[in-house]
Amino acid sequence: MRKILNVAHVYMILGLVSGLYYRELTKLTGFTGDTQLGVVHTHLLALGMLFFLVVLALEKVFALTSVRLFGWFFWIYNAGLAVTVATMTLHGTLTVLGRPSGEAIALISGLGHVLLTVGLILLFVTLGKRIPAKPAPAGDLVPADAAPQNAEA
Predict the structure, then answer these.
(1) Helix extents (H) in 35-102
(2) CA 20 to 30 Å from 108, out of 45, 100, 135, 143?
(3) What are phi and psi of 73, to 5 degrees?
């Protein structure tokens, strides 16, 4: 669980730093147009920090890390997010500096999105392995208000 929390924390820091980078670079160059730099911090905070805080809560409830696929999800999703954010940052920086970005950046960004998609699929498969398909029979569950009563009372 600590690893999941640490990753969320790293994404929080990167999200805040990327917002600062966007603000300062555009201010320094006098850039006023649209650029992908403006949404890099949002991607890092939402797809990184918030997402892994949700995964942390799911881990607490369902013990996701006990499934072998969790490791695959963790690394593939993080690789996808890193590639996606790196290409967004590069493309946005080139836009602010008035330089063209080649098709290679779009292709690499597409690879990042594919990795994110594969990671999400692995997360749902992992969740499916930890959540029972059928609810337990009613006789197996004892409601909290039906606790056995003390015979001596």
Answers:
(1) 37-43, 51-62, 69-96
(2) 45
(3) -55, -50
The pair of three-digit structure tokens given for residue 30, joined into one six-digit string: 């006098």
pTM (predicted TM-score): 0.84
Q: Which amino acid is at 36?
A: Q
Between CA 68 and CA 56 the distance in angstroms is 16
Q: Cβ(63)–Cβ(130) under 8 Å?
A: yes
Distances (CA, A) of 75 to 28, 69, 93, 116: 36, 10, 27, 10
Residue 68 is classified by DSSP as: T
Distance CA 12, CA 51 (A): 11
* Integer Rg of the chain from CA: 22
Positive/negative CA dihedral, 50, 55, 60, 61: positive
- Spell out, as residue ranges, where the chain has pLDDT lower than 50: 142-143, 146, 151-153
Which residues lie closer than 8 Å to 18 by C-beta, 6 or more apart? 37, 40, 41, 44, 85, 89
Rounded distance between C-alpha atoms, residue 71 and residue 113, angstroms: 19
Structure tokens at 47: 């797809």
